[in-house]
Amino acid sequence: MVYDITKRQTFDNVQRWLRELRDHADSNIVIMMAGNKSDLNHLRAVTEEDGQALAEREGLSFLETSALEATNIEKAFQTILTEIYHIISKKALAAQEAAASTAIPGQGTTINVTDTSGNTKRGCCST
């Protein structure tokens, strides 16, 4: 979710956009809030503190970025990917734990481990 730090109206719309996104997207969506155009600090209409406070209230990661100067762009994507990785890892672990807890004791696969070292097979051309 990106707003323009030089236009207060875009920041004021963030909560509505978030509500719409959450209403229509998958519940596991990863959302990050970014205040863009940090290179235009002299035209700032939204403080970084306001952005951070809203992000915290909404449970979002937050960064200020500048597409023009490529400031924090890579970090924003890395943050999102890290959050996605953590969600997937938690789900995989929960699935493994659920599978382990529902397994019936004594109903595993039997593996025959007999010693066959004395029974070496000969190839088709060996004598």
Overview of this protein structure:
By secondary structure, this protein is mainly alpha-helical. The protein has a single domain, classed as 3-Layer(aba) Sandwich (Rossmann fold), CATH 3.40.50.300. 46% of the residues lie in helices and 9% in strands. It is built from 3 helices and 3 strands; from the N terminus they run βαβαβα. It has helices spanning 8-24, 48-58, 73-102; strands at 2-4, 32-36, 61-64. The protein has a 3-stranded parallel beta sheet, with helices on both faces. The model has no long low-confidence stretch (mean pLDDT 87). It holds the Pfam family Ras. One of its GO terms (molecular function) is GTP binding. Belongs to the small GTPase superfamily. Rab family.
Domain unit count: 1
Contiguous helical run count: 3
E-strand count: 3
What does the average pLDDT come to?
A: 87
Short description:
With 127 residues, the chain is mainly α. 46% of the residues lie in helices and 9% in strands.
Itemize the secondary structure elements and their pairings:
Layout: E1 2-4, H1 8-24, E2 32-36, H2 48-58, E3 61-64, H3 73-102
List keywords for this structure.
single chain; 127 residues; mainly alpha; Rossmann fold; three-stranded parallel sheet; 3 helices; elongated; GTP binding; Small_GTPase; Rab_GTPases_membrane_traffic; GTPase activity; Small_GTP-bd
